[in-house]
Write the structure tokens for this entry.
Amino acid sequence: MKITVKLFAYFRENRFLREDQDLPAGTTVGDIISSLGIDPEEVGVTMINSRHCALDQAVQENDQVAIFPVIGGG
Amino acid sequence: MADKIYRINMSTLSTAVEEVPAQWQGHGGRGLTSTIIAAEVEPSCHPLGPGNKLVFAPGLLSGTTAANSGRLSCGAKSPLTGTIKEANAGGTSAQLLARLGIKALIIEGLPQEERWYSLAIDEQGITINEETELIGKGNYAVIEAMGQRIGAKTGVISIGQAGELKMSGANISIKDPDARIRSCGRGGLGAVMGSKRIKYISIVPTDKKVAIADPEAFKAANRTFAKALVDNPISQALGQYGTNVLVNIINEAGALPTRNFTTGQFEGHEEISGETMYDTIVERGGKPKHNCHAGCVINCSQVYNGPDKEYRTSGFEYESIWAMGADCCVDNLDYIAQADNLMDDIGLDTIETSVAFGVAMEAGVLEFGDGAGICRMLSEEIAQGTPLGRIIGNGAGSVGRAFGVTRVPVVKNQAIPAYDPRAIKGIGITYATSTQGADHTMGYTIATNILGVGGSVDPLSHEGQVELSRNLQIATAAIDSTGMCLFIAFAALDDANCLPALIEMINARFGINLTADDVTNLGKTILKTERAFNQAAGFTNLDDRLPEFFSQEPIAPHNVVWDIPGEKIDTFWDF
């Protein structure tokens, strides 16, 4: 199952900006975060295909997964 | 010594120092400017005529050691919206005014003659002086001249050419600790200052301190408050990436208004993002962190250098970068930085003016993506006051009317900022119902709709948006009265220690016993005072609506329109 993972802000440091991954069915957003060595406590927002999602949501073929640390502005 | 009101009458060129009336004692910042405007300005007056007044007020905690308390509020009837208006900014002036015991400056009347003036404030009081040398010059020339004439630490409040020309997009500039510029940006308050023919106000620093009723309690509360701010992860991210960290997340959410609000994602988002900006700043020897006033512990400002490693701009904000970037399709931070600095110097609101450029691009005045063209038109058209420059300098609505464009993103004639209301519905409620025209800072639902701060409300749903916007608008009106930067709200929404410490500081400063309910009631009272002014000026619930195109043109990628009915919007005021 091919998906795209996008990282933002300091999550990109020593990782990547955008990466295509081949993952087994049933993989959740939380699994992806763990596999990247990101502390879940530091995760602020996760989106699949531009919609907010929970960490236990399973990803589907061709999904775009975006992972942001806790950020703000305005 | 009790704080005083300084009243400046430009019709008679006279000044007076007054006691603070009892009913104004508990107010500061926005609460005070709006209370004074509502009490003393006829709502139907022409904003640039003799009946309007321009009020400056430091916040309740400004001038103290309270972290992040250096905001200065400026209020008047707005020439852009016709509503009551308050705009606030950092810089050094709020603290200097508060330490001089000045609760508010009220500037009224219009000079009889075609001369320009300045106001000089020091420990002896206030004087009105004629000014000739700096007329027609930008804000940076004023700041430099004040440094030479009076001293490097002089506080400066000034207008550029846009304010002199009474453009509705003109802002009021406040000098920051590094002699750069912060702006009371929105609503054309620079034009009101220009109508009163005041080019600048200088403030000589004093050694006096703000009196604190209970210094020990104040110190303890400030320690708790500052810790809540510093420990908050959002504060930390703001220090690294500035507010521009938002480009990528708002783009990802499909709510980054692009190409004059025709789509919700911008192909060039990475080029203008906070991440790219941070890398560029570090590479060119700029400063990722910078504070706009002493005592700020968040440091969301920065110093951005050009490819030659020389200074280009600071206080480089998300909304400015979005407006020139995505909305005008300029995918080059160097052009955006140059335009940002030009707008600071000319004294233009970066949101209003850049959205006006987006509408002008749709009209064919210049091409989308033409960053060089924007910079040229700022210098050669707007600063010179050519007919085209005046059309753009009067804002997005002005450009739409002049060129027959119907896709004009404004509410109450004020440009909609960097979050598309079709894809983030809570902010649409704020734009519609704000007492001051479209303004994200009036009730920043992005926190909860997108960032997961203060809970979570689905940005595309109708549910909970009115309540979210209402609660935030009430809280914001109260925060805007304290002199606090609005970014304390991120800590206040998620850290249980933050808000009680803030209230404790207000109590310790004045020797009073406010509760959280009192603060909420203050926010409600301010909103109702502002709305009553607008209603008396002729506004009705039918003005609390978004432009027609938002309900007719779906925005990608979610392909959604603005579809919250008017009757539901109107329930905002059920409190």
